[in-house]
Amino acid sequence: MTTFAIVDLETTGNAKEDRIIEIGIVITKETGSVIKEFSSLIYPDRGIPPFITSLTGIEEEDVLDAPFFSEIIDEVYHLIKDSYIVAHNIEFDLGFLNGEFKRCGYEPLHNPVIDTVELARILIPTSPTFKLGQLADLLGMGHDRPHRALSDAQVTRDLLIYLLKRMSRLPERTLFHLLKVEEKLKSELRPFITKIRDDKRYSLEKEEGYTLIHGIPVKKSSHPQAENSSQLHPFSKWVDEAYEDKEGMKKVMKQYESRTGQRDMTELVYESLEKSKHALIEAGAGTGKSIAYLLASLYYAVQNGQRVLVTTHTTSLQQQLLEEEIPSLEHLFKRPIRTVLYKGRSHYISLIHFSYELEQSRQDNYDIALTKAIILVWLTETATGDVDEIQLPSNGRQFWHKVSAEQSTKTVDLDLGEDSFYHWAQEKASHADLLITNHALFCMDLVSEEPRLPSYDRAIIDEAHHLEPVASRYFGIRMNYKELQRQLSQFSDMFKKSTYRQWVFRESFYKEAKKCQATVDEAKEELNQLSKYIFQSIKRENKGNRKKSDVGRIQYGMKMGESSGFQSTAREMSHRFTALLFKLITGMDHMREQLRLAASMAEDHSLPILITRLDRQIELCHQIRKQLTDYFDSDSEELVKWIEIEGEGANNSIYLFSEPLNIADILREELFHKKESVVLTSSTLSTEGSFSYMKELLGIDQEDLMESIIPSPYSYDRQVQVMVPNDFPDIKRNPEEYIDAISEAIYSIAEVTKGRMLVLFTSYDMLRKTYSLLKEIIDPEEFMIFAQGVSSGSRDRLKKNFQSFEQSILLGTSSFWEGVDIPGEDLSCLVMVRLPFQPPDQPVQSKRDAQMKESGRNSFMERSLPQAIIRFKQGFGRLIRSSTDRGVVFICDQRLMEARYGKYFLNSIPEVPVSYRSTRELINQMEQWL
Length: 930
Prior knowledge:
Strand content: 5-15%
Structural class: alpha/beta
Largest sheet: 7 strands, parallel
Radius of gyration: 30 Å
Oligomer: single chain
Strand order of the largest sheet: 10-11-9-12-17-8-18
EC number: 3.1.-.-
Protein name: 3'-5' exonuclease DinG
Function: 3'-5' exonuclease.
CATH topology of the domain at 716-929: Rossmann fold
CATH superfamily of the domain at 716-929: P-loop containing nucleotide triphosphate hydrolases
Family: Belongs to the helicase family. DinG subfamily. Type 2 sub-subfamily.
Number of helices: 34
Helix content: 40-55%
CATH class of the domain at 716-929: Alpha Beta
């Protein structure tokens, strides 16, 4: 029977020169019984950084009397030398161990290994995290002392036994396919997979719950049945019961609190759906707006047998609707509610393409092998086939493009029929009461020639303040060098001789493939030259006077009708690139015809797969050509075009953008004039009690439009204080002094609030400079500082890191002004560095301003100010997320109190106490209040 040595180390850091400070080892049998445990602190002969102390609790005095590693090496070596070595991130632990063995003159160990991170990724593919502590919580495993070696080793042992049990429950055919990729993995799993597979092969037990599709076990899934319309009480009576009755909301929702505004909103939404009217509804924080509109739209859908579409900006809100709110509300109806989260083709796996790729596993690298293993296990669990359920490794996304349903084309659609997740999603959607989607797909559907969404007449747009920026993005062009190079690199698979090894083609076919590969190489080089030229020209032109985007990229606005030397050279170079794409299309057309001829003469499922892939590549080339031609050759006054470059990045990382100057006309024609009822809702749609800005922005001009502002139920006057310092330097005259003052204020406030601060910037450049200064003046033992774009990780990762440390400060720009929920005591102070005006020199903003000026309008009052007020309200909303939250909003911008327009900002938020004094006085006041 196999013996496992489960090892965990704590070290002074991740670098080569770092050393071990603690070791924990658990020796266990395959059955799970523990044979021996060993642990020891180790003297590292160097200091322990504060970050490691705060993580592990191990201080320098703890290891002063601990042995050197050389004093315990003999015991450690003999304890583990004959076992499978297991660790949660094997490369880290075994790397450090072998480093110490080598240092002490011992041979490094080459035992078989298991990495429980890798094994968990494969066997729990839908886990949101693979960190040991979080996995332990997720699986209900006790973990008394995280980041202590023996405790971590004990939990890793529990995890290993759990994972091996999970593996034993996999279908025999899944195990058969896993063996195709196992040799490329870090973990040596073949003996375990083979034994489980053989036991299953000779067992008399039937494997139930799976369907074999293209030779792959897939979870059996029930197909939707159309339900008859359920007759409910008339709406007025039904809504009374839902809100007032003991069997209503009080029963179905935990800790339900009655809110007047919520019921008002339900009635408004229902009226707009029932009477085919459009509506704008602003619902203050804490109204419970998603429950309000769900009750109305579900009632309408069930009673009338007509589906309603709900679109949101964030996936977190979609998950909240699907997993928490709709299942609770279902009990108020007399039948199950059919809800479908609908996404584009690229989200769904194509089983026939995946089956083909499994047969091509000989050449896989590590990431592809791991991706295939994850997908194989996931297919035994998923009901949707939607890639967002799993986390793929870094290159796994590239592999996904090969096996997603977007590979099926109009000419050869391999994914129609009973064995396709995309087909099942469409089928479910056709029977749905409620369709949930995102703003991106919603906007693509509005302008796409072929429909991207099932038909609908009534829509609820939540987070509606995002509709305009998302629509602008999808009604325009977004291209970047890296993505184009990635797409071209992926083409090469279709031109390799090895792709066609199982068939016999004429030599002319291989010559054509070779010519296509040469054209791809030429196109990649031409694209590289174009990107380099654009990059260097913009960097040269913007020296010293750099317009920057909110993520710190240098911007260059393309001028319509102007034929500068730069623009005409860039246009010429793009023509050379698009000419090569046309040559490539012609070559791929010839290859496709020969493949079609071969497919008509032989029954072989692989040939149609290759034809669809060539079809997809031809389609993509046409798309890229059209977009680049539109970008460089079109001189439409209705478009704004600009280029961004990474100032510090590779000298060809360029991004091309274009957006329509006015999306109101498009939305008016494609949305508001075509749909029966569109309800737009958000906590920030109005400015100064009026929707006029939003109506003009989105093209809503209906006379019978319903409008309502529902105030928040929170007691803001008791929960919030707004503080504005009156002694900050003038940012225009002394930008460096201003950053010094911000940094000092942040530090002083942090001492009062014990960290727990979110600092919002409008400029990435200022964020970066403030972060550098704070790192100099703040002791890392005192406060952890996280900064968007500086600290690694996504917005959600930064937020989690911020919440996991007791005393921390989070600096954010752009996306942090909204959609970040940090409830309770994790956040006590929100700092706004400046009022959130869009920089006037941003390409779209400056063109719109100029256009308004020409027509005699005041662009500041009509556009810049309302836009900034809505963003200000979003930022303000980050602080109070429940009725028990308390905190301070500290605004370092004297314009709020001194400029004529400052009152518009204050009038747009609930009435709260406002103090305008010196920084020191405000900090004293804050200390007393908190």
